[in-house]
Amino acid sequence: MDEILRTEKLSKSFPGVQALKNVDFQLKKGEVHALVGQNGAGKSTLVKILAGVYKPDSGNIFLDGKKVEIKDPNYAISLGISTVHQSLIIFPDLTVLENMFIDNYSSSSIKLINWKNFRNQALKIMNEVGINIPLDQEAKNISAPMQKLLQILRSLLKQGKILILDEPTAALTSDETKILFENIKKLKNKGISIIYISHLLEEIFELADTVTVFRNGEVVMTDSISNLNLGSIVKAMIGRELQTFYPRRDPKIGSINLKVENINSGILRSFSMELKKGEVLGIAGILGSGRTTLANTLFGITPATDGSIFLNNKKINIKAPSDAVKEGIVLIPEDRQREGLILQQSIKFNISLPNVDLIKNKNGFLDPKKGSDLTNKAIKDFEIQPPFPDFQVLHLSGGNQQKIVISKWLVRDASIIIMDEPTQGIDVGSKAQIYTWINKFVEEGRSVIFISSDFDELVNMCDRIIVLRKGVVAGELKKPNLSIDELIALSTLEERDDSFAVKSFVGESRND
Amino acid sequence: MRNMKKIELILLGIMVLVIVIMSFLSKAFLNISTLFQILQLSAELGIMSIPMTLIMITGGIDLSITSTLALTGVIMGYLWKFWGMNIWLAVILAIIVSGIAGLFNGFLVSKLRIPALLATLGTWAAYAGLAVGIDRGKGVSGFPQSFLNLGEGSFVGIPYSLLIWAIIAVIFYIIVSKTSFGMYLFAIGNNEKGTFYSGIPVQKIEMTIYILAGLLAGLAGVIYTSRTATATSSAFSSGALNVVAASVLGGTDVKGGSGSVLGTVLGVLIIALIDAGLTLANIQATVQEIVVGTILISSIIFYEYVGKSKVKTIQTISK
Q: For residue A74, what pLDDT is reported?
């Protein structure tokens, strides 16, 4: 295959960080080239340079063998390099066709828009790549993978030769991912070159031709997918062998800790559950099943409208997060940046914020020394990088940000920790650390409510999993009968044939 | 995030510069008692700009406090004159009313989630209207000397009103920089949602600062009435601009998350000194408003582009 893009000794640094070091990277025509690496390894910096968002400090970029200087995002697009961002940029109330040309209307602002011409262009490109999206549907009415494809087509309309896909499957279910992948393969066969970023290594084996692994701003490995396996990629990513990804734990499950009886809150309908000491309880379900509502209800963000909650056989009243914290119930929220952290502030500020009771002196004033001690302890226990209490949280990698969200609660004496998607968008190394802390936490006789879209993670980490569907319990699975297939079936199937139920399925807590 | 230490130093420098320039304009300027007289005029501004700073740190604003000031004076005067109430009891009751005015603002902003700018613009008009309704444009005067002493008297040469301002400033300096309450204000200003998710009672804190703003505006109203010997609904009518300008000049970020009591005190002092200087130089009051307006806008521009604290790099931290 011919080369279409090459970088030579590309370097870029930010205050305090060398983000890229002498990166040589080659993209061939018509290949899917996956970039993998932990958060902050340098893959995003590379694609941002290619997309014209950042300027490199040194090094060269060659496009079709000619040296180019990508000075801004528009210039990158004119060169045929298009980026499809992780967050969906569509206009839900406009039609698919309008969405496709949203940034092309103004090519000549006085002329009327020639819709017929646009429609023909759209049909032509869809025909060429073999993708079909109904042009007159409103964008909000097409499925999630189709919305993603819409973004991709929008890029192709600008004569895109190189597509950068940044975690395109982050918001998709596995079925939707399959649809997207089939279509990406069509693009590839049409000779479009694709740079693919994903945290899900399984996807890469399904899609990629070549894999480049980044670590600490350097390319540590580039190879054809056929020469690689999961172990070799993970080893290259973290620089050492990962013994067992999910650490082992011998569950010591004790008496009932938390008991929830018939609560209603938002989408949740007469929900009941029990949580035992020393238990990791998983909550599974698709988006909109009530998972996050459950977390927010137990933590007092959206208090239950009725029903009762008991902690150690004592009825408790949770009307606000401060009530939950007092009872020793804490939440690692789903939206790390907006709900979990004060990004503008330092590591020390963030760790101190919910723990002022621990860092006051006897007169009731904040003791800066105690604050620093608490922060340094968290930094050390949770291996936060860089290890400086005054460092602004905004500039940390996703994995380190999540470590702060978790450590700010774990430094205090919480008895129940609710984690809503704690490992989403973070690197394998940080993931493994989080799993280790979860195990350590429950081994001390405390409990974890673990909400995740990653069924593999749930099955490997949990003692028991409650599956939610449309606000009610669709089923409950217990160790050792936890299986991904059953989780998928329970969380997505609308009507269940009774014969489908396997032995591990314990039907209870349905609407009485 | 702003580098408040740097901003405070710059303000201190500006203040010295203003004093030097003013002393060239008028020999009387360097006299301590002249200085006290000038500053005495700014005690109400100083007292009100402190809670304004706290509110602005959380990302809010309270435009109603100057109306609360007038309302407090009018109610106090009414209770004393027409109900024959003891003057000090009238003072206490009027300050309680100002606290209720603040509570109502807090309710609108923190419970009903009405943008602070609009909520307090509404109550600014409502409280002013209430004051006019009670006062009917007549005003109350002839207060007993014991009450007038508050505005006129002094302790070892320092006017009472300045002492009160100083004590309040010190108390709030400690609250903002040394207590968890102060820490929460900054957290709310940076990210209200994230603060709530950290188990902090955000609504209670917002409620508290609006009540404080009402109470301190009430206190300022009492001092103003005593100093001018008249309770009138037109008291301090153009003051909102100065209160906001003093806080903003003092480095408080209108978008929330930054600010300091010391900065605001310096902001008040600078505005007071410039005002006095312009008066001494026989420059019209309308021009003075232009000057304050210009200070407001230019300090926003200055802090937005110049006063930003730089991202801390690993090198500077590990030093």
A: 85
- pLDDT tens sequence across B172-203: 999 999 999 999 999 999 999 999 999 999 99
Model pLDDT, residue A107:
56
- Top residue of A329, A337, A339, A413 to mutate, by most chain B CBs within 10 Å, is A339
Interface contact flag, A17 B314, Cβ < 8 Å = yes
**Range list of H helices, A276-335:** 291-298, 321-326
| Interchain proximity A366–B180, CB inside 8 Å | yes
CB contact under 8 A, A408 and B178: no
Q: Which long-range contacts (CB under 8 A, 24 or more apart) does A236-242 make?
A: A237/A36, A237/A37, A237/A38, A237/A41, A237/A213, A237/A427, A237/A428, A237/A429, A238/A38, A238/A428, A238/A429, A239/A215, A242/A428, A242/A432
User: Which of B183, B201, B314 lies at the smallest CB-CB distance from A16?
Assistant: B314
pLDDT, position A244: 55
Cα atoms found within 13 Å of the Cα of residue A196, Cβ hemisphere only: 31
Q: What is the mean pLDDT of residues A148-160?
A: 81
Burial state string for A130-159 with b = 16 or more CB within 10 A and e = fewer than 16: ebebebeeebeebebbbbbbbbbbbbbbee
Q: Is the pLDDT of residue A432 over 90?
A: no
Q: Which residues of B touch A299 (CB under 8 A)?
A: 197
Summarised one tens digit per residue, pLDDT across range A291-333 is 999 999 999 999 999 999 999 999 999 999 999 999 999 999 9
Q: Does B174 touch chain A (CB under 8 A)?
A: yes
Is the Cβ of B173 closer than 8 Å to some Cβ of chain A? no
Q: Is the pLDDT of residue A506 over 70?
A: no
Higher pLDDT, residue A148 or B28: A148
The per-residue pLDDT for range A446-475, each reduced to its tens digit, is 999 999 988 888 999 999 999 998 888 989
pLDDT at residue B219 is higher than 80 = yes
pTM of the model: 0.76
Residues of chain A with C-beta less than 8 angstroms from the C-beta of B178: 365-366
- For residues A382 and A403, the answer to whether their CB atoms sit within 8 Å is yes
Query: Smallest Cβ distance to A386: which of B194, B199, B314?
Result: B314
Residues B64, B214: Cα–Cα separation, whole Å: 9
Tokens of A487: 């989780």
Q: b/e per residue, B161-200, with b = 16+ CB within 10 A?
A: bbebbeebbeebbebbebbbebbbbbbbbbbbebbbbbbb
pLDDT band at A487 (very low <50, low <70, confident <90, very high): confident
Task: Give the H/E segment covering residue B180.
Answer: helix B180-190
What domains, with CATH codes, occur in chain B?
4-309 (1.10.3470)
Give the domains, in start order, of chain A with CATH numbers: 3-238 (3.40.50.300), 252-328+416-422+437-512 (3.40.50.300), 336-412 (no CATH)
Chain A interface, best mutation among B4, B57, B198, B309, by max A CB count within 10 A: B198
CA A422 to chain centre: 9
pLDDT at A498 over 80: no
